[in-house]
Backbone:
């Protein structure tokens, strides 16, 4: 649904749906480039900023990390930025924008205060709310998962740890691809030379850029931690495999003398002690003693 909040010098239009009716209505009100309308109606795009004579068109991406989902999903916010208007377009996923819009609708004093400050201030408040809410939620979610997996790696090894680490790595890489281009996009807004953003608001957008830089640093640390946990998990799996092979080798060596003895006495030829069946127990006792000495030596050398 397309709604507008108006003041004497500024208009904020917001819609959480994209359909032909809303697009046609906006086309009658604003003469935006047809390529921008195609971007609005199509699937998610990478963040970008297009500069025109009378307006700016920006695409922002934010993470959408639902509790029941294993992977970071993306939500897109399209913004048309003019000297006396802002049009925000999204597809139902950005409830923070809708809640801010409703808050200004209901609170006359706040609406008058914010809208009177113009395009640059409203754009800052929208982006600040969206980035600091969504980026923090996703980063905190990944951090909690990472702590959980880190504990599990040292408790037990197995396929589950590998799958969880692979999922975390995918989420971190997706998150990094989302954050990186938007740092430059925000920096471009901060130093806008086309008259849409006043110089006095440069520190405001620098604050958002600094926040994105901190998120980028967190994600870099998470990536390093995941890589370290991968190596640790692989080392533990290798050690466990070696222990199993070592035990199987000891069992095989211990069974070699009885196997050899049974093979010799199973042959249909004349052998020593054939007429003395009790001597077999003595031979087995000797073999057992030799085996225990062998095991004792291995144990003393801490081979197992």
Residues:
């Amino acid at each position: 649904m397309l709604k507008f909040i108006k003041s004497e010098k500024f208009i904020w239009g917001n819609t959480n749906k994209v359909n032909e009716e809303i697009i046609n209505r906006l086309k009658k009100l604003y003469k935006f480039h047809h390529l921008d309308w195609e971007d609005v109606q199509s699937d998610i795009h990478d963040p970008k900023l297009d500069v025109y004579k009378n307006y700016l068109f920006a695409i922002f991406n934010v993470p959408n990390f639902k509790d029941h989902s294993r992977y970071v999903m993306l939500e897109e916010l399209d913004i048309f930025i003019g000297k006396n208007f802002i049009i925000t377009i999204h597809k139902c996923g950005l409830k923070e924008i809708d809640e801010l819009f409703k808050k200004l609708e209901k609170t006359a004093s706040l609406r008058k205060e914010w809208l009177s400050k113009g395009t640059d201030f409203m754009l800052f408040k929208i982006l600040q709310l969206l980035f600091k809410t969504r980026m923090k939620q996703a980063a905190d979610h990944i951090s909690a998962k990472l702590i959980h997996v880190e504990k599990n790696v040292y408790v037990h090894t197995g396929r589950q740890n590998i799958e969880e680490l692979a999922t975390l790595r995918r989420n971190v890489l997706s998150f990094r691809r989302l954050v990186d281009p938007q740092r430059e996009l925000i920096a471009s807004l901060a130093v806008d030379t086309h008259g849409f953003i006043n110089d006095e608001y440069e520190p405001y957008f620098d604050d958002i850029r600094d926040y994105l830089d901190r998120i980028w640093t967190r994600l870099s640390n998470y990536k390093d931690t995941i890589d370290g946990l991968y190596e640790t998990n692989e080392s533990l799996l290798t050690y466990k495999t070696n222990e199993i092979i070592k035990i199987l080798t000891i069992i095989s060596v211990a069974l070699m003398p009885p196997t050899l003895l049974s093979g010799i006495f199973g042959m249909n030829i004349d052998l020593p002690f054939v007429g003395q069946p009790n001597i077999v127990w003595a031979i087995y006792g000797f073999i057992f003693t030799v085996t225990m000495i062998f095991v004792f030596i291995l144990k003393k050398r801490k081979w197992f």
Observations:
- The CA atoms of residues 276 and 282 lie 11 Å apart.
